[in-house]
Amino acid sequence: MKILIVHNDYGRYSGEEAVVDRMISNLSSLGYDVDTFRRTSQPYRDTLLGKTRGFFSGIYSIAGRRAMRRKLREFCPDIINIHNLYPFISPAILPLCKKAGIPVVMTVHNYRLICPTGLFLRNGNPCENCLKNGNELDCIRYNCEHNRLRSLGYALRNAAARKTKAYYNNVDCFCCLTEFQKEKLIAAGFDKTKIKVIPNYIDYRETSDKQLSECKTRYVGYVGRLSHEKGYDLLVEVARRHPEIEFRFAGTLREDEQAPELPNVKLCGQLPQDQLAQFYDDSRFIVIPSRCYEGFPVALLEASSHSRCCIAPDHGAFRELMTNCENGETAGLLFRPNDIDDLEHKIVKLWNNTPQSIELGAKAFRNYDKRFLKENIVTAWDKLLHRLVNDKR
Asked: What pTM was computed for the model?
């Protein structure tokens, strides 16, 4: 079977790109003939010409549509898996797929089908106005991107897709990562019979014997982009309040964020996979302090595979992801979103209770082992792709 993976890469390598690359590799290993249609925002993110092109092509990309038509003619895929279309591919390619009679499954990584920014976030707090109002005006009114032109562009491209029903009419299946995402799509009017939930997965699996040792010095770990929506500054403030606790951050610091000058904070940068595995092993637990709902943070899976529990905000899908569906155990701690005092309390509590860290880490591994194993999730994707192709035939 021939499958075409479609994705517009972001300006910086992200968890979404990692998922796309992982999917290409694993589908190839199953015997699929995999090809890609990819564009990147990297060369254009910092130039006026690039930003102007991105503004208009996000609404309707003539170049993206033309190139996609050529790719369909040359590769003749049996099925298409779409990830991100903005800004240089755009929903303009979707009617081409429909007209060619090729089934389309879209992996829903975030909330961009409903929220122009994809984050459900405004001024540091969750915001669902665009979902409730059924339009994108508040993205412009409240300048959700903190840049008037960008907020306008994001709102216009979402409005164009909504008005033309580009996704609704031309995508055969929306593959959400969580039940929380699925509920939001249904609330926005998407057909629930076209929505399936298949979670994220990771390529490697650690063993449950890699548990914490009470005799080793540990640190509080963070893995991901170091930015405001991820709550990076909240964790830095907790570190400032507690110089007796060591904090380490693995990820890229965004341009508008400052590196903290604290003796108990170390920025490790973007780590290769082997060093990242060691980072998890050497941590006592991982903190995900996100202000936004998140889609499905891969750091949660990676930490769990190393028997490390997480402290995460009690919003979005975090409770769903951290709760074992068989016995209802929560494999970690949840704090009140954007509440730095509650976050501080949870971190100090777990830091001073190594036996609880070990116990929660073991629960996290069991939850991962039951629900998020690569083999099961790849099999679910294999079945879905075959069903969609057979249904179309």
From this structure: 0.92
Assess contact for 367 and 301: CB atoms under 8 A: no
What's the pLDDT score for residue 208? 44
Mind listing the pLDDT tens digit for each residue in 348-379?
999 999 999 999 999 999 999 999 999 999 99
- Alpha-carbon gap, residue 89 to 7, rounded angstroms: 8
What pLDDT score does 354 carry?
92
Name the 3-class secondary structure at 195. strand
Residues contacting 104, CB < 8 A, separation 6+: 79, 80, 81, 82, 94, 97, 98, 170, 171, 172, 173
Strand 125-126 to 121-122 pairing = antiparallel
Phi, psi (deg, nearest 5) at residue 389 = -65, -45
* pLDDT band at residue 11 using 50, 70 and 90 as cut-offs: confident
Instruction: Decide: helix, strand or coil at residue 122.
Output: strand
The CA distances from residue 360 to 220, 290, 367, in Å, are 15, 20, 10
Q: How many CA atoms lie within 13 A of 305 on its CB side?
A: 19
111 close to 184: Cβ distance less than 8 angstroms: yes
- Cβ-Cβ contacts under 8 Å for 144 (sequence gap 6 or more): 116, 117, 121, 122, 127, 138, 151, 154
Q: Which residues contact 351 (CB under 8 A, 6 or more apart)?
A: 220, 245, 284
Average pLDDT, the chain: 92
Structural domains of the chain sorted by starting position, each given as residue range(s) with its CATH number in brackets: 2-201+374-392 (3.40.50.2000), 219-371 (3.40.50.2000)
Per-residue tokens: 46 = 């910092």
**Rounded distance between C-alpha atoms, residue 220 and residue 280, angstroms:** 10
Give the C-alpha separation, 124 to 228, whole Å.
Answer: 8
- Largest Cα separation within the chain, whole Å, is 64
